[in-house]
Amino acid sequence: MTQIIYDGSYEGWLTAVFEIYEYKFKDVAFAKDETSTALLFCNKHFVDTDHAKADRVLNGLQKRLSNSGFSNLYYAFLSEMNQIEETLFRYVQYVLASRINIEQDFSNSSVLNVQKAMQLTGKESHRMKAFVRFKLTKDNLYYAIVEPDCNVLPLIENHFKNRYADQRWLIYDAKRKYGIYYDLENVSTVEMQFDANSSSSKFLAEICDDNEEFFQSLWRNYFKSVNIESRKNTKLHIQHMPKRYWKNLTEKIPDLKSRK
User: Fold this and answer.
1) I want to staple 30 with a disulfide (CB 3.0 to 4.6 A). Which of 58, 85, 94, 148 is the partner?
2) pTM of the model
3) Residues with Cβ < 8 Å from 159, sequence gap 6 or more?
4) What is the CA radius of gyration of the chain?
5) CA distances in angstroms from 199 to 17, 44, 138, 176, 204, listed in the order given
6) How far is CA 243 from CA 8, 29, 58, 217, 219, in A?
7) What are the residue boundaries of the DUF4130 domain, all occurrences included (predicted)?
8) For 35, which DSSP code?
9) Dihedrals φ, ψ of 54, to 5°?
């Protein structure tokens, strides 16, 4: 068994796929860093991300997959499902070994699992477009904190760039400790340590615009006013807005004045 250690990026994983074929490794397992203890007694192969190698793998797959099938690989990778790298590698092996398109062969476990991972990421990215709630800081930066199950920031950046083209904003993924920042021209990836749990009124008063508390209260009041109690369907509500998102939704957070 060979443990393939890469940097966690999609390009890094593609480079790893190239080198598995290059060095003719047989049984492999992937790890994002060398501290992984999943395999204690095995050979280790360290991968340096090489865009030329990654592009060669992409070009080979693009010739054998439809446009949607090609993009599904990236979506599946971003799902971060358990052992998704191994699943995708088996999928790639199947693609490259077949003379026909295998995208609809759901009798194959790798094809089926890639489809499930892709759907999970797609659903999560769609929800994030609706569940991002911005707050305005004193230096006119709109920021939002999210904690999606899948790594969807790369998939939603164009949506927010087009929708909020006239304001600076930052969407921070508290789970993965990085964010996407728009400076009125370009979107860039930023890595930062940010205390996403700092929700006290004192903390908010220090960083937020003076009118932010007022606007958040307006939004909560609006949300309450359009909520018809007699038509309340909690089960359906949770289905469309799962509880794991509530901690970062303004309308689900008690009024700032009630915080200690």
Assistant:
1) 85
2) 0.79
3) 129
4) 22
5) 43, 43, 16, 19, 7
6) 28, 34, 38, 21, 19
7) 83-251
8) T
9) -60, -40
